[in-house]
Design a protein that fits this description.
The chain has 353 residues and is an alpha+beta fold. It has twelve helices and twelve strands. Strand 4, helix 5 and strand 5 form a beta-alpha-beta unit. Helix 2 runs parallel beside helix 5, helix 4 runs parallel beside helix 5 and helix 8 packs across helix 12. It catalyses: 2-formamido-N(1)-(5-O-phospho-beta-D-ribosyl)acetamidine + ATP = 5-amino-1-(5-phospho-beta-D-ribosyl)imidazole + ADP + phosphate + H(+).
Length: 353
């Protein structure tokens, strides 16, 4: 059969069709009653009449990618985990506003469409969407020969959620005396990988197949550990406990992200002694000879999410999160800020691992 001009240019439309067929079963698991139709159309459809139950609905939206962690997935040939990273970076930016994630769309660009590879990536996205109770209603797979190598790929997405206007979380609700509740990260999540890869892997320092001292599995497995998706747990928490503000700890580290919800005149003091970061953080710091400020402004240091609640709500918050199997603890308090003091101050030292 004669090869089309587009195929001769390096774009295989039939491979794209095969990828869609392979991913349909995965996408079907990541749905909601409001979704209209299936994948394969020109646009994803969502029945907005569901918003009628809100008194004053406010839509929230977020867009993000996975970053250079995809290079590790490519190098290791493991593609079903980075979808969790994408979904986590998207939906957990919504829930910290108090918004329920409704739907998500993804975009995958690659040098060559390998249907099984694309389906594996989408499987991870769909599984994470199902865990977050968010519908995956559409996406795009783009083949870019000449721009990307055959094994190269990148991914991004966008998500939309909804909240009641008078229930939005934020700095205007934070009060002196509030308690900071930390929620454990599953590892590095998907931020800081440009530094992590440079520190651990450049010049052949460490091998992805090796198991460095202190780790219980290979470095590659540790670095590909998926982002924990907090959305469903946070929505349950918000239904049972009064939360004033939340912060998703992503690029920029704990202090920089938490500062975004601290009002002027107040300060959150975080006690490092309240938790021990996982060994991967110590490894990055030791191999890279990074000082505390450098690593803390880059990595989450074991905390993926922080909630600020009134002191009378702290025990209830810990009970709710614990009942869902999420490791959480009191990590600090909100106090009046001294003149010129930072919005967030980390004090003390982590316990020895």
């Amino acid at each position: 059969m004669k090869q089309s001009a587009y195929a001769r240019a390096g774009v295989d439309i039939h491979a794209g069709d095969d990828a869609v067929e392979l991913m349909k079963a995965h996408v079907a698991r990541a749905s909601r009653p409001e979704v209209l139709g299936g994948i394969g159309g020109f646009a994803g459809l969502f029945d907005a009449s569901a918003l009628a139950r809100y008194r004053h609905p406010v839509l929230a939206t977020s867009t993000d990618g996975v970053g250079t962690k995809v290079a590790l997935a490519r190098d290791l040939g493991v593609y079903d985990t980075v979808g969790w990273d994408l979904v986590g970076m998207l939906v957990d930016d919504l829930v910290v506003c108090g918004a329920e994630p409704l739907f998500l769309t993804d975009y995958i660009a690659c040098g060559k469409v390998v249907p099984e590879r694309i389906a594996s990536i989408v499987k991870g996205i769909a599984d994470a969407c199902a865990a977050a109770r968010c519908a995956l209603i559409g996406g795009e797979t783009a083949e870019h020969p000449g721009l990307m190598g055959p094994d190269d790929f990148d991914m991004a997405g966008a998500t939309t959620g909804v909240a009641e206007a008078d229930e939005l979380l934020g700095s205007d609700r934070v009060c002196e005396g509030d308690v900071a509740i930390a929620m454990a990260s599953s590892g590095l999540h998907s931020n800081g990988y440009s530094l992590v890869r440079q520190v651990l892997l450049s010049d052949g320092k460490l091998s992805l197949d090796a198991t460095p001292e202190g780790l219980a599995r290979s470095l590659g497995e540790e670095l590909l550990e998926p982002t924990h998706v907090y959305a469903a747990e946070i929505m349950t928490l918000l239904r049972q406990v009064t939360v004033h503000a939340m912060s998703h700890i992503t690029g920029g580290g704990l202090a920089n992200n938490l500062a975004r919800v601290v009002p002027q005149g107040l300060q959150v003091r975080i006690e490092r002694a309240s938790w021990s970061p996982k060994p991967i953080f110590e490894l990055v710091q030791a191999v890279g000879r990074l000082d505390q400020a450098d690593i803390e402004e880059t990595l989450n240091m074991g905390v993926g999410m922080i909630a600020l609640v009134g002191p009378e709500q702290a025990d209830a918050a810990l009970r709710v999160l614990g009942a869902m199997g999420l490791d959480s603890w009191v990590c600090g308090h909100v106090d009046a800020a001294a003149p010129g003091a930072p919005a967030v101050e980390l004090v003390g030292a982590h316990p020895a691992g």
